Predict the 3D structure of the following.
Amino acid sequence: MKEKRIVFTGDSITDCERLWDEGQEKLGFGYVRMIREQLSEAEAGAVRIINRGHNGYTAFQMRQRWEEDCISLQPDTLTILVGVNDLSIHLCGAGGYDGEGFGRHVEWLLRKAREKTGARIILMEPFLFPRPAEYRTWMPALGTFREPLRRLSEQYGTAFIPLWDVFQAAQGQYPVEALTTDGIHLTALGHEMIADEWMKVWRFGKRE
């Protein structure tokens, strides 16, 4: 039986120091590793998990490496999580693009993946936490980056994990400090929540 490939792409939340991981698989220390650990023995024997997250990457930068990080690997399942760096560059006046431009870059990634692979695609939504307080002012703009992803998920028939909603709900149960280290990056609990949501979608096709 041919080994199934599960490829994770995105920014530092996916990367999670994978290059410092001394394990052979280089999965990093976040949700990608946790997903690997949640696989049953039978599942683990049938799949290979590949982490191709890159610290600091935007959707545009992902385009530059898409052949290497996605197409050449011919994934059976492809996961994309990107957006917070795009948002930061846009808001900080460093010459970035707005939510509409972000959507165009993500659409390019999805279109190429559809054209050149047979992957099942799981698209995940970017998120922020309201600490430090500055990030509260970013929330309206974040909405304009989140909206294209929901539209593109429907257009391209991908699975979709609304991480904004997931972490909004989690803040009703946990203090913000239990979920994030700096308002963007996650604690072990935050990564565990992503892993749990991803496993539901991968195994059952839906979150509930």
